[in-house]
Amino acid sequence: MLQIKALQETDPQWEQVCAYAAACSWKAGPFLAKDMTEHLFTGWERVFAAYINEEIAGYCTLARKDCIPDVPYSPYIGYMFVDEKYRGRRLSQKLIQCAMAYAGELGFSRVYLVSGEKGLYEKYGFTKLEEREDIWGNKEQIFSAAL
C-alpha cells in the first residue's frame, strides 16, 4: 500500500529518510541528507517520502529555493528520486501531486522545479520557463506548473 508523508524535522521518520537519502543510488541523495542534517528545511518546507508497505520507495522536497541563484521563483519541488525497484509505478507523479497540493494549501499559485531532463516533467503539466546556470556551472531548465 502506498503512503506519502510530508515530513519536517520533528517527525519520527526524518532520520530514516535522511539515512536512506545518504545511501541511495542517486548522486544527489547525499546532498539531501546533508541539507536535512544541517537543519536547512525550515518553516513550511517539507520532505515528502513515499512508502510502499512501510518501506521508503522515493522522496522529493518542497522548498523556498533550488540550485539556481538569483531567480524570483518559489517554491521549488526538488530532490525527486524513486528507488529503482519501485520505478514504473508513477511514484514521481504521486509525489509531485502531493507536493503541489501542499503548496496550494500554503497559498501558492505555482510551483517550480529545476531539471536537465527533457520530456519528463511536461507530462505532469510543467512548462519550461527558461534555462539558467546552476551553482555548479551546469545549464539547467526551470519548469513551472500552475496549481
From TrEMBL:
Residues 2-147 form the N-acetyltransferase domain. PROSITE patterns: GNAT (PS51186). GO terms for molecular function: acyltransferase activity, transferring groups other than amino-acyl groups. Keywords: Transferase. InterPro entries: Acyl_CoA_acyltransferase, GNAT_dom. Pfam families: Acetyltransf_1. It comes from the Bacteria. SUPFAM superfamilies: Acyl-CoA N-acyltransferases (Nat) (SSF55729). The keyword Transferase applies. This is Acetyltransferase (GNAT) family protein. The lineage of its organism: Bacteria, Bacillati, Bacillota, Clostridia, Lachnospirales.
